[in-house]
Specification:
Layout: E1 4-14, E2 23-28, H1 36-46, E3 50-55, E4 64-69, E5 74-75, H2 79-91, E6 101-106, E7 109-116, E8 123-127, E9 132-136, H3 139-145, E10 159-162, E11 167-171, H4 175-180, H5 185-192, E12 200-206, E13 210-213, E14 215-217, E15 222-225, H6 229-241, E16 252-257, E17 265-271, E18 280-284, E19 286-297
């Protein structure tokens, strides 16, 4: 006979200092008795871009183990869940209040988190895992599946890069073109082929501040993501490789994402070493929103 248990969770808005903007995230600070099928069902029930579940670490040097689920699948790594879960661990006292850096154990491996600023409104930075560059895509086909004309694209070949989640980057000339873009599941499968690994598609336009971006991930059960930290490090590398962003060490810029869908998010980027040779950090603020509980028979 199933025993009913109560599981407390937090909802926070990530990559914003304003409630009801940024990317919402649900965090279960103690998920030790939940199995993978139940976690997947919870993520589908909450229907956010991602939900995270915290367990004791199994790797030395990690503060906690974190499992990340979209409504349809488990992820090896994701950015706003890393930043948001790190904030909740700090806020709940599960990481020491004076801690300036710690690591979270994710399926991709340890992900380093750095804390900048005071305890009341810190900015959290994640160290992007190693970035793999993939194949280039036909620009005309990318324009077609995004509902755009070819002349709205910059003369830069669209390309797939991945820091754990393959993402196809498409550089556009103007933020207005980014806002007009859209894609359906059949479109992205037509673009990359039906037997390839699931991918996200990331149209963006360079701006004086950095980039104006959107991200579509229908194969992950996410029509549009308000903020995609896992793709922002690869975005920075793609922009540097194609002369769309400075390569110098210490360069900072901002990717604005989610604005079209009413969830404006600001993802900060820090380039470490020339051309990111010493790593790329992605950072942002977190705004706590609510605390709730879920009663489950398990």
């Amino acid at each position: 006979m199933a025993v009913e248990r109560e599981f407390r969770y937090r909802v926070v808005d990530v990559f914003t200092e304003r409630a009801l903007e940024g990317n919402p995230l649900a965090v279960f600070p103690d998920a030790s008795s939940l199995d993978a099928p139940t976690m997947q069902r919870i993520a589908r029930e909450l229907n956010l871009s991602e939900t995270t579940f915290v367990f004791p670490a199994t790797r030395a040097g990690c503060a906690a183990r974190v499992r990340i689920f979209t409504p349809s699948r488990e992820m090896p790594f994701a950015g706003h869940p890393t930043i948001g879960t790190g904030y909740v661990l700090l806020d709940e006292g599960l990481v020491g209040p004076r801690t300036q850096a710690f690591a979270l154990e994710e399926n991709i491996g340890p992900v380093r988190v750095r804390v900048e600023g005071g305890p009341r409104q810190p900015m959290l930075w994640l160290e992007t895992p190693p970035i793999q560059t993939g194949r280039c895509y036909d620009a005309r086909l990318c324009a077609e599946v995004l509902g755009l004309s070819p002349d709205e694209l910059l003369d830069v070949p669209p390309q797939e890069l991945s820091a754990g989640n393959p993402t196809i980057f498409v550089a556009l000339r103007d933020p207005r073109s980014v806002d007009r873009a859209s894609i359906e599941l059949t479109g992205i499968r037509r673009l990359r082929g039906t037997d390839a690994e699931p991918s996200c598609i990331f149209p963006f336009a360079p701006t004086p501040e950095g980039a104006y971006s959107r991200m579509f991930a229908p194969e992950y059960g996410v029509i549009e993501d308000p903020a995609t930290g896992s793709s922002t490090g690869p975005l920075a590398l793609f922009m540097m490789h194609n002369g769309l962003a400075p390569r110098a060490a210490g360069t900072r810029f901002v990717s604005e994402q989610g604005t079209k869908m009413g969830r404006r998010s600001l993802l900060h980027v820090l380039i470490k070493g020339e051309n990111g040779a010493e790593g790329i950090e992605v950072g942002g603020h977190v705004t706590p929103l609510s605390t709730a509980s879920m009663r489950l028979g398990i």
